[in-house]
Write a structure and sequence with these properties.
The protein is α/β, with parallel strands linked by helices. The protein is 25% helix and 34% strand. The strands form 3 sheets. Strands 1, 4, 7, 9, 10 and 12 form a 6-stranded parallel beta sheet that branches. The longest helix is centred in the N-terminal third of the chain and has 16 residues. It is elongated and about 60 Å long.
Length: 191
């Protein structure tokens, strides 16, 4: 007579590979959003592959903030479209028209983000673009007539503002300022 099944050994409670893959994707999104450090990501990924029950997978992300579009924590509202552009192991190419939001976040982790704002309109005042690249790159194309302040930093990478575009922005004398902040680690941010 076979022994009774315990919840940990119940085949119906086994962790399907699709659930593990989804959890890895969630963790890399949190990492791209700077919710996790390198060490925290690695430790949580180890827990994903060691999990023997779906409840163990759920516990791995229980303490993390909600992600935009996440059905597991629908209580929090998602940010406005195109205010947070993230590429993890992939690329994102966006072209914004109309009025640019006051704050944009661009994240490239082992991937790239290309943002074209040449057809967009900037309101008077300061628009902040926080660009972060880790083993990837972020490229921002801006229209003439906006003043650009590039205050980012880099570590084994490059955080760059093209001089020719600066001259065009200063000559335009517009009242719009685009402040590019963030960091490039083993990658680059260019505007």
């Amino acid at each position: 007579m076979p022994a009774p099944l315990t919840p940990a050994h119940d085949p119906s409670n086994a962790v399907p590979s699709a659930a593990r893959e989804r959890m890895v994707q969630l963790l890399t999104q949190h990492y791209a959003n700077d919710d996790l450090t390198d060490a925290e990501l690695e430790a949580r990924l180890d827990r994903v592959y060691a999990a023997t029950a779906l409840s163990q997978l759920d516990a791995i992300v229980a303490d993390l903030p909600a992600l935009p579009g996440s059905e597991t924590r629908a209580v929090r509202a998602a940010p406005a479209p195109d205010t947070h552009i993230t590429a993890v192991f992939s690329g994102q190419e966006r072209s914004l028209t109309g009025v640019v939001p006051r704050e944009l976040k661009l994240r490239a982790r082992l991937g790239y983000v290309e943002l074209d704002l040449r057809q967009a309109t900037f309101e008077p005042g300061v628009t902040v673009i926080d660009a972060r690249a880790f083993l990837g790159f972020v490229q921002i194309r801006l229209p003439p007539g906006v003043r650009v302040e590039s205050v980012g930093r880099s570590l084994f990478g490059l955080f760059s503002r093209k001089a020719a575009a600066d001259a065009a922005g200063a000559a335009g004398g517009g009242s719009s300022v685009v402040r590019i902040t963030g960091r490039a680690v083993f990658g680059f941010v260019e505007s």
